[in-house]
Amino acid sequence: MTFQPAGATTIAAKTPASETARRNQPLQSFDLLVGPLSFSQATRRGLAFYLLSDGIAVWLATTGLVAQAFVLLGLSRLLAVAFGRLAAGRRSARRGLVAARRPWLEALLYLFTLAVVAAANGTGSFAASLSGFPASQALRVSAATAIDAAVGYLTVQGDGFFRVVTRGLLSLLKGLEAILTLTPWPVLFAVIGFAAWKRGGPMLLAVVWAALGYLGLFGYWAEALQTSALVLASLCVCLVIGIPVGILLAKSPVSRAIASPVLDLMQTMPSFVYLLPAVAFFSIGKPPALIATVIFALPPLVRLTCLGIEQVPLHVREAMQAHGATPLQTLLKAELPLALPSIRTGINQTIMMCLSMVVVAALIGGGGLGYNVLFALQNVQYGEGILAGLGIVFCAVLFDRLAGSGRKGGA
What's the predicted TM-score (pTM) here? Predict the structure, then answer.
């Protein structure tokens, strides 16, 4: 017994079975791409279109209207098949049944493509207009001018706020740098080594001590401490902002819909672009470097915190509500503990992205190992640049192994 969807007509019952099968058999992409090589009813229906397309390509090649006409033939045929089958699939889905796919849309799109390509390879102003997208220089200049005016207005009107933020971030950075730099190196070796041994055993201890030894023996100890202070300060700001925002997005679909494009913009924007507003609002120095690093490294923590909260099983929430737990108690005693592995992964990704901004932040006074790499690049010192870059790599290894989910007995 077969199921007949609602809305299907009984015309097929009055038509021979072979004729119905022939009409309902879709035109396959394989038939359009390689021609009548298979023995199907769809091939017979698509034969005229196939021969027409090849005839047009041969005519274009022999007359010299389009260079490499056969290459253009293949590309245009691929486009025609892709868009035509997409439109047919959507139409069939809306109807709730598998409808016969007519090749007219593919044929029209194919002919349109060849006509435009032939016109673009011709001469005259119309062909020149097809070769390049029509751009508006005035629109670009006006948009850039409006952005400059907005930045200038915010810089003047928010000067007090930006000064307070700069002082706060500078105090956090100086405090972390003081803790790290005033601690003797044997103490740091012992404390970091003990943490590595507790987390991953002797193998992780050997890896951590090797990384620390490289930084010390090659003279990058002070710069590594400055880089670590910048990474830790950025991580603190990301934790204060990212985890609450991630919880909010998990609890509010409206907030998630609003914040998702913003997070996409923060993740896809080139890292050098973050330096522009940071310098405009916070001048030059370590605070704007920290701000740019936070903007670049914040999205993974927000997304993974939201994902961890969303993946908490529904029966856990129902059990907490059945026992009279408030939403805050459910969050603190059930959702956050269950989402902790995802949050830890977000923290680890944030640390790695903070380290990836070290060299970029050095352009505006971030200091640390990033300045060594930047100085070597400016003075074409390959050896110094590679050694400083390896120092950043070893810092990343230290943070990754100590903050990641290491297992006992392995690195």
Answer: 0.67
